[in-house]
Structures are given as C-alpha cells and as structure tokens.
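Retro notes (design track)

What went well: tokenization of the new backbones is finally stable.
What didn't: we kept losing track of which sequence belonged to which structure.
Fix going forward: every design gets posted as structure first, then sequence, in one message. First example under the new rule, 492 residues:
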C-alpha cells in the first residue's frame, strides 16, 4: 500500500474557525496513526477573499494545538512544493489545456450580465449539457470565432460534464454515494484572472502531491462528484474521501458561527484575531485562558468518540486511538460548558510545579513549598488559571476589603466575639487542619452556635470573602502566626 499522505488545505480568508482546527486535527491524527505525512497547503486562488495575516494565523494556531504539519507551508521539508496555490499558476494552466484539447472542457465567453439574465429568466437555470449549446462558448461557436474572442475577450474555462451518468464514490464516514451527472452543472474550472477555481486546483494538487486521503468538512461533500469527474477526465485515481460532520450551534440546529460565540460568550477561534480591515477583535481560546491540551481534547470529541467511557485524551493518546470508523455522520453539537469542563480537568491534572508557576506570576516573593501547598488547594476549584489572581490573593496578603454582600447578610452582632474566642482556641491548638477543625467543632457545640455562622465569620476575617477553599486546610497553610494576626483585626 502506498504511503498515507493527508493535507489540510485552508483558504487564507480570515482566522481559522474551530471547525477548521478540528479538520486539521483529524487529518493530523489520521496521519500519525498510519505513520503518514500531514501536509499544509494554502488554497489562495480566490484573490478577492485573501486576507492579510490569515496564513500566519493558521500556522500559529496549528502550532499552539501541537499539530504543526510535517510538510508544506511553514515547513521547508517536502518534495511537492510550492505549497501555496498562488505560486502554482503554470502548473494549472498546463492541465486546463490538456482537458480542452481532449474535449473535456471548453472556453466560455458569456459575461456575468448574460449569465444573470438567464438565471432571472429561467427558474433553476443551469449551465449544463442541456443549455451549453445556446450559450457563447467554444462548443457553440466556430473555431475562428473562438480564436477571435480568445484574443480580445475575457474568458473562463468550464468542465464539460458528461450527460446522464451515475457517479459512485465511497466516503469513509458515509459509505457509498451515488449521484447522477444530470444534477451537476458545467462548473468554471479556470477564471478570467488566469487562476484556477478551487475545484481544479484542489484535485490537481491532491494528485500531484500524492494525497491518499481527503479528510474535510461536510460542506465539501456536494463538490466531491465534480472532483471525481475531474479525476476521471485526467485518467487519475481519486483519493479516498472522508467528510466530517458539521459542528452545530449549542441549540443543535445550524452550523456554529462567530455570531453564536459573541451571543453566548465563548470563542470560536483558537487564537485571538484582529481584523486588519476593521480592527475588530475576536476572542481566542488561548487568550481566554484555555489550555491547548484541553482545546484539542474537546475538539477531538466533536465528531469522534473512542467507544469507551474515557473522555480525557492527551494528544499522544489521541494519536493512538483515533479512527475514522468512529467518526459520526450526524452533526456534533458544540457545548461551551463541556469546553470549560475539559479545561478544569486539565487544570486539575497540572503538575504542582507548573501550577505553582501560575501563582508566582501574580504573587511574588514566597517560597516554592508555599506556592505548592496553595496550588494543591485550588486544583479542583478553578476552571481558568486567571481566577487565581482574585481567589488565591488572601494567601499572599491579609484582606483589606471584606465582601460587602456577605458582611451584610452573614456578619452578626456576636460574630466578632466568636472570632475572638476562636483566635484564642486556635492559638493553643496544634496547627493541622484536622486539629483545627476538631477544636472549632468543640467550640460551636459547647456554645450552641450554628456551624455555618461561625465558619463564615472566621472565613470573612481571614480571607475577606464569603466562599473559598477548605477553611481549615487554608488555615494550616497560612500558619499560626498569620491566622492569629488576621483574627485580631475584625472585618468592618
Ligand atoms: N480550501 C478549502 C477550504 O477552505 C479546502 C477544502 C478541501 O479540503 O478540499 O476549506
């Protein structure tokens, strides 16, 4: 069997949507599992839609996810370059000529206005084997007329779709697909600007770059019959196809869009993007505090599942487990809470030393063991590292403000007395969370005070907040000196 070679082929028309990242990820995983190549090809033949900075963004996004290509744009290796379609113009010209000479494609001179007129006049009008004879093209005109127009007019090249033929192809996700050519129009394969359209460039490149499997989004499924016809026309063997399910809005209907992200407050792009034309900023997962490993894990599950209960997969585990046969046909609903859940899981599993570094960024000047102890306490309590700045602050300085709402609701007339009593008791207690809790319980029982009421009084005094990590463990970390000191100053 020939080598597995897959490509991710984005058009640089803006930032890469997470759907695109997922396509790249599945290609990467498929290549890794089969010991194949993962290629990045930039499909930039539509110059009207070209956006400055988009290619760079795509590369950075793949890198952040840990799925950089091993061949193609951004990578000097590879014998099949150039990998940017705009640099391959001459190559396509040669192949268009070949199709024209073999009567499998033809020149068309119809102006956009003439085409619009037809479409307006006839409902569902198509440029195809039924209508091509009545249009202005090298099939309907004489050789002399054609040559004359070629010298003076803009022209496009259209594929001559064979009449009434059944086209079959196999999709690794969807099974065998059959379609009759009568529903396909004579698509433009070469434009008046001297560049091929997506369809032609895509299949010429997939052939020349020896791509074995085309793994891409479902939106390209309707184009595949045309691609199969083009492979046939050239006498080339088509690659295997796999069309990935759409990523759906959280509500379950329709494709997930940037607007859904704006509306519901989650990013739809891996990295932040600043639109070069408008300056508008779109948020990214990275800048919003998501870990790359969590994002990759979350994306892997949008359309694929391992068939077991296991949900947490590192990239290298995914490389071993991923299988196209477990990719579903139906759309995958995006779930922002699940994305957060994945992030929380990865934070929980972060090594103490790495977690401690995040604390150090906000709070300088403490020793490593202290950071580590605080880290342990917060591991299961946060979804984003950025929460530490506020939530862990009390470990690094005594509170100066006390949460107003909690004070109003929970600070009672006898709260001050309770704190003072407990300060004395704690001072005489062995300073472990277990002993502190015992002493606390004995006190509230003896005094017949509510556990919660006393607890919140101490918490407010020590942390300034109404909620936080386990109070007794926090006290053990803060130490006797700090605790006693803080308890001498009552909140106000
Ligand atoms: N340039 C196409 C895109 O932007 C590539 C589709 C394909 O993979 O064939 O998605």
């Amino acid at each position: 069997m020939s080598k597995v070679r897959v490509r991710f082929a984005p058009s640089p028309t803006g930032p890469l949507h997470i759907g695109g990242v997922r396509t790249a990820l599945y290609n990467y995983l498929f290549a890794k599992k089969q010991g194949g190549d993962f290629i990045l090809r930039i499909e930039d033949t539509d110059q009207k839609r070209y956006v400055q900075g988009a290619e760079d963004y795509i590369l950075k996004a793949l890198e952040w996810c840990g799925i950089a290509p091993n061949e193609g744009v951004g990578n000097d290796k590879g014998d099949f370059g150039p990998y940017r379609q705009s640099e391959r113009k001459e190559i396509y010209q040669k192949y268009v000529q070949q199709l024209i000479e073999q009567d499998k494609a033809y020149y068309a001179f119809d102006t956009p206005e003439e085409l619009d007129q037809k479409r307006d006049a006839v409902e569902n009008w198509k440029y195809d084997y039924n209508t091509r004879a009545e249009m202005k093209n090298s099939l309907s005109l004489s050789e002399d007329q054609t040559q004359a127009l070629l010298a003076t007019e803009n022209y496009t090249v259209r594929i001559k779709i064979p009449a009434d033929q059944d086209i079959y192809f196999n999709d690794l996700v969807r099974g065998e697909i059959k379609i009759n050519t009568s529903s396909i129009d004579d698509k433009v394969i070469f434009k008046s600007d001297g560049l091929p359209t997506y369809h032609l460039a895509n299949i010429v490149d997939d052939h020349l770059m020896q791509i074995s499997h085309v793994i891409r989004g479902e939106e390209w499924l309707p184009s595949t019959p045309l691609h199969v016809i083009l492979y046939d026309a050239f006498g080339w063997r088509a690659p295997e196809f796999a069309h990935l399910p759409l990523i759906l809005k959280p509500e379950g209907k329709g494709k997930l869009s940037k607007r859904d992200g704006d509306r519901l407050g989650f990013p739809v792009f891996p990295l932040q993007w600043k639109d070069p034309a408008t300056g508008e900023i779109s948020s990214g997962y990275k800048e919003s505090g998501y870990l790359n490993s969590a994002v990759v894990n979350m994306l892997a599950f949008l359309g694929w599942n391992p068939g077991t209960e296991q949900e947490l997969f590192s990239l290298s585990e995914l490389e071993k487990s991923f299988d196209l046969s477990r990719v579903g046909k139906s759309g995958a609903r995006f779930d922002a809470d699940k994305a957060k859940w994945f992030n929380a899981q990865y934070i929980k599993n972060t090594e103490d030393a790495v977690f401690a570094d995040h604390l150090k960024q906000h709070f300088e000047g403490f020793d490593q063991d202290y950071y580590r102890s605080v880290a342990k306490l917060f591991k299961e309590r946060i979804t984003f590292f950025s929460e530490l700045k506020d939530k862990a602050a009390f470990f690094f300085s005594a509170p100066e403000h006390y949460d107003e709402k909690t004070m109003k609701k929970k600070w009672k007339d006898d709260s001050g007395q309770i704190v003072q009593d407990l300060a004395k008791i704690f001072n005489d207690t062995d300073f472990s969370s277990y002993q502190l809790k015992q002493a606390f319980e004995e006190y509230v029982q003896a005094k017949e005070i509510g556990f919660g009421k006393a607890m919140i009084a101490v918490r407010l005094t020590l942390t300034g907040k109404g909620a936080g990590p386990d109070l007794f463990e926090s006290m053990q970390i803060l130490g006797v000196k700090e605790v006693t000191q803080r308890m001498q100053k009552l909140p106000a």
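Added context from the reviewer: The chain has four domains: 89-244, 258-347, 350-386, 404-488.
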